[in-house]
Here is the input.
Amino acid sequence: MSRLGGKVALVTGGAAGIGRAIVERFVAEGASVVVGDIDEDGLASLASERVAVSRCDVTSEADQAALVRLAGDRFGGLDIGVANAGVGWATKVLDHELSDWQRVIDISLTGVFLTYKHAGRAITVRGGGSLVAMASLNAVQAGRGMAAYCAAKGGVKMLTEVTALELGEAGVRVNAIAPGLVRTTLTDPMWLMPGLVDQHLDNAPLGRWSEPSEIAGVVAFLVSDDASFITGTLQLIDGGCHLNRYPNLFASIPGAAGEPKEHTT
Ligand SMILES: NC(=O)c1ccc[n+]([C@@H]2O[C@H](COP(=O)([O-])OP(=O)(O)OC[C@H]3O[C@@H](n4cnc5c(N)ncnc54)[C@H](O)[C@@H]3O)[C@@H](O)[C@H]2O)c1
Here is the structure.
């Protein structure tokens, strides 16, 4: 496969999970890839002639700018940027600590903004290309206990639309991806909550969760010339789960589904 032959791509959060599958797929399709992550061991295991790695916390503008510079230094420029890094948090709104809220928004939304800004500038200089951000089914489907995550991912959807409007004339296509349940380190805890995965499967027209490679394949399509007329979209990859109601995160935790606690402030 050489659909991405000669292209240079940047992927954040690429040391594990979906991001790592995207890096592997891009390399298999011929691209050179710059990978940023806070997991230095994971990064080291990816480094090769066509994969340059660098510690990058996506909440740091300096780190994101340095990652883009690395693409220029190692591979001569940038054609593709994938803002993949993201984290979640499960707490009801009335119990949510501000610091936890801010952490999710900083990584999962502000991190995407910084990738769009710095990778977008470099891609524009090159004369065009493609940006993709990792949103979620939770960008369009609310889940109890997922306020910060849903707000961040809904924000990624709108940020993507605005960026697509602004960069279209520069030849940059901008799209977001909305996976449903994918088995990764992020979602491993869901398998420990009795009944939660069963709720997901009951909720899923295809009756299963997905593997990271199934998300990576769609990202590779979206950044390729095969998707040359697609911009400003949110691509659902959820086995049809958007057709149903999001499972109740708290139905599986004894005592958690009851009335909200009493709050004094
Ligand atoms: N797994 C799912 O079911 C699912 C569903 C919908 C959306 N997503 C989204 O897909 C993306 C990837 O999720 P995943 O399931 O592969 O998660 P994961 O936890 O397996 O991998 C996330 C990667 O991001 C890195 N990371 C975390 N914080 C970072 C930071 N501040 N700066 C740089 N890197 C950081 C981690 O070190 C890790 O390598 C996330 O944005 C997530 O919200 C996942």
